[in-house]
Automatic annotation (TrEMBL), chain A:
SUPFAM superfamilies: MetI-like (SSF161098). It is a multi-pass membrane protein. InterPro entries: BP-dependent_transpt_permease, MetI-like, MetI-like_sf, OppC_N. CDD domains: TM_PBP2. This is ABC transporter permease. Gene3D superfamilies: MetI-like. It comes from Yinghuangia soli. Residues 87-277 form the ABC transmembrane type-1 domain.
């Protein structure tokens, strides 16, 4: 036995890295951008300089000016006002999709993971079938069958997003419920609702939040696409996806501003939401790097 | 107090526990010893009701324990029969719950206490296991393995169980902490009269805590009896080898000869 100090090996004997790393700059910036969009959804109409539906036959397809910062569209409506007033409608539908699919998916996942056996097989089997249908196609079909408007696509997308949420949450819930602390709570006589609400859900919440964030980006694109092909929001609603399609003829004639700015809103928000989601997921226990 | 008869568990074709039987009197303490994979944890989980036995019966205080998870008051009554402390101290506690809250939650399931009365009971339990004020206010990640194991013991005691099962409660801990926990268990036994079922793969710690010992190998009981006689005159070859691997009957926790090189 030598008392000579052991050579210091890299990482040997060091304390494990602290799990709660600070968020990196990109994630913080993304969070700020998402925050601005949320404010727009809440207060957009108050900030709009003009009535979003006021047509001006004499000022159609105008470029940027002091009166119309982003110009006007093919009927002379102020594009900036339409974008600001459309923020809520454009974000509410995808938010609803995420809310419904996350809530229902989490409930299904907890049931499957907790009760196991045939409950798990039933849930997993049913969702495998749903998983076979791409969300956008289901949304378009729903709108085609039940008529234009966002109600049918929102329901269709909520169902289409279920399998992904359920799979991710189920896997995490299975792991969580196998931890001894859950057995200990059961042995102590804690009720199942107590274990779910006080212990399982709070521990799964960060993962669920990340899933919802990333899902929102996809839902935003899907809802915009449904509106783009004319089956979602109906004119004259100032919805961004609809504005992109309304402005499309202008792209060919050198007046791209309507499609451009509405599309830019969608793209910027999707990128910010994705950056935020992946930044948050890195902070999850067991998240990469 | 605890009577186990013909307990058996198979996983597919594999027999994990085979015909295990024993009786444990009120206030008694039984050690279940055996090498890794001998079926100790499986036996404990069946007794606690976390695993369905393939065959056999378990009775506490003369009352047969049925299958399934009872509801409401029945579930809490069952909790007061048997509590268990798990092998892994790192995942035995909810990582988002402060130590004090975890113990308070367990207390409230069994006693209608609130406010200062609840706090007093929680403090009493934490005192008993030697968890101090600062640790009580921390999340589990701020605690060492030994400290977490103490919290898990305090939480189990909150149900005031008739039988306390400890599955390798000291296996994950280093020798001096092991000794502390063993002393703590002996103290709890004398102050609360709890019946102990102490599971370990280390025959050396058994004399410090248990009166009776049961030796398991590949799911079967190879030998059982009072600790002194089994240690002095092991009947079975396997037990003899286990005994031979322990330094001496009057085993004391070994201390490291020198502090580890920095
Ligand atoms: N759920 C399970 N499915 C299949 N086999 C299992 C299961 N649980 C335990 N076993 C098997 O049963 C045997 C006994 O396991 P058990 O955990 O009871 O051993 P142990 O005596 O507690 O061992 P250790 O000292 O390592 O904790 C092992 O061979 C194990 O692989
Ligand atoms: Mg074990």
């Amino acid at each position: 036995m030598s008392t000579a100090p052991a050579p210091v090996l890299p990482s040997a004997g060091r304390t494990p890295p602290v799990r709660r790393r600070r968020l990196d700059t990109a994630t913080l910036a993304a969070a700020a951008v998402v925050g601005v969009f949320v404010l727009l959804a809440l207060f957009g109409p108050l900030l709009a300089p003009h009535d979003p539906n006021a047509v001006d036959p004499l000022g159609v397809n105008a470029g940027s000016s002091a009166g119309h910062l982003l110009g006007t569209d093919d009927t002379g409506r102020d594009i900036l006002s339409r974008i600001l007033c459309g923020a809520r409608a454009s974000m509410a539908a995808p938010a609803l999709v995420v809310l419904v699919s996350t809530a229902a998916g989490t409930a299904l996942a907890l049931c499957a993971a907790w009760f196991g056996g045939w409950t798990d097989r039933l849930v997993s089997g049913a969702l495998d079938v749903v998983f076979g249908f791409p969300g956008l196609i289901m949304a378009v079909l729903a709108a085609a069958v039940f008529g234009p408007g966002l109600a049918a696509p929102v329901i269709a997308l909520s169902i289409a997003y279920l399998p992904l949420v359920t799979r991710v949450v189920r896997a995490a819930a299975l792991k969580e419920r196998s931890l001894p602390y859950v057995s200990a709570l059961g042995l102590l006589g804690a009720s199942t609702p107590r274990i779910w609400l006080r212990h399982l859900l709070p521990n799964l919440a960060p993962l669920i939040l990340v899933q919802a964030t990333i899902g929102f980006g996809y839902a935003l694109l899907d809802v915009a696409a449904v509106s783009f092909i004319g089956l979602g929001s109906q004119p004259p609603a100032p919805e961004w996806g609809l504005m992109v399609s309304n402005g499309a003829p202008g792209i060919l004639t050198g007046q791209p501003q309507q499609s451009l700015y509405a599309g830019l809103m969608i793209v910027v928000l999707v990128i910010a939401v994705n950056l935020l989601g992946s930044g948050l997921s890195r902070r999850l226990p067991g998240g990469a790097a | 107090m605890l009577e186990v008869r013909n307990l058996r568990k198979t996983f597919g074709d594999f027999v994990a526990v085979d015909d295990v039987a024993f009786r444990l009197e009120v206030g008694g303490s039984l050690a279940v010893v055996g090498e890794s994979g001998s079926g100790k944890t499986t036996t404990a989980r069946m007794i606690a009701g976390l695993e369905q036995p393939t065959a056999g019966s378990i009775a506490v205080a003369g009352k047969e324990r049925g299958p399934g998870r009872p509801r409401g008051a029945g579930r809490r009554a069952r909790a007061r029969e048997i509590q268990m402390v798990f092998q892994d101290p790192y995942s035995s506690l909810d990582r988002r719950q402060r130590v004090r809250d975890a113990v308070a939650e367990a207390v409230r399931l069994h006693r209608p206490l609130r406010g200062p009365a609840l706090a007093a009971r929680v403090d009493e339990l934490l005192d008993l296991v030697g968890v101090d004020e600062r640790q009580a206010g921390s999340l589990p990640r701020a605690l060492s393995g030994g400290q977490r194991q103490r919290v898990a013991i305090a939480r189990a005691l909150a149900a005031e169980p008739q039988v306390l099962i400890l599955d390798e409660a000291v296996a994950a801990l280093d020798v001096s902490i092991q000794a502390q926990i063993l002393n703590l268990l002996a103290h709890i036994r004398t102050t609360t009269g709890t019946t102990l079922l102490f599971i370990t793969h280390d025959l050396g710690v058994v004399p410090h805590i248990c009166d009776e010992v049961l030796v398991m190998r590949s799911g079967q009981v190879v030998e059982s009896g009072p600790v002194p006689s089994v240690l002095r005159e092991p009947q079975h070859d396997y037990t003899r080898r286990l005994v031979a691997s322990v330094p001496k009957p009057g085993w004391k926790p070994r201390r490291r000869a020198q502090p580890p090189a920095a």
